[in-house]
Design brief:
Shape: globular
Structural class: mainly beta
Radius of gyration: 18 Å
Distance between the termini: 29 Å
Strand order of the largest sheet: 1-2-3-4-5-6-7-8-9-10-11
Number of helices: 1
CATH architecture: Beta Barrel
CATH topology: Lipocalin
Number of strands: 11
Order of helices and strands: HEEEEEEEEEEE
Amino acid sequence: MLIIKQKKLIYFILFLALFANPVYSQDNEFRGWSQIQYSIDINKKWSLDLSQHFRLKEDFNIVDSYITESEITYSPVKKLKLSGQLRYYYRNDNSGGVQGFENMYRYRLGIEKRFNTAPLNFELRLAYQNRVSLDRENRFKKRIRIRPLAEIKIKEWKNRPKLFYEYFNEIDGSDQKAHRYGISLKKELNKNQSFIIRYFFQKYDEKIIPDFTNNIISIKYSFN
């Protein structure tokens, strides 16, 4: 019975992705994100995550980027996390006057608070990030990110689905704003391994170019 419920939720995630595309077909595309993550619990308060990402764009037809990431997390008290993240991008820029793969890095600082309630658990994450080009001058993107998340409690189901919304506000750069709406499901494979599938719809509010949207399907394998 539990396996059937999980399969239904995965099908529902894929249905949302397929349904959203024709509605916004003029300025919309599918993207695919994949990630492998290795987690290290240093002690009860400190942890370290190392991960490699591969991303596709333009309806899964073109490589978007290769990303290498490290993130350290500190929990000073229960249900509160402070994090610092560093990424290296090898990103494919195939639009505009200057095209080709570009070397970039990004750092992000965040704080996350968890609230346990019934029938939902809530998380709130606030973060600041800055992405900078290593190849081009004056090319950067500074953002504030706000993400509330709700975890749905289902009786006798430890792999609970999560609904989330995230707001991106570019505070220095091209003044881009974005809204991300998503659902995710985490499957515990065993004590030290897990698999996450996510779908989210992302809408970009642009100041310089026309607005556009993305449908993103993401898979993540994590072990420690």
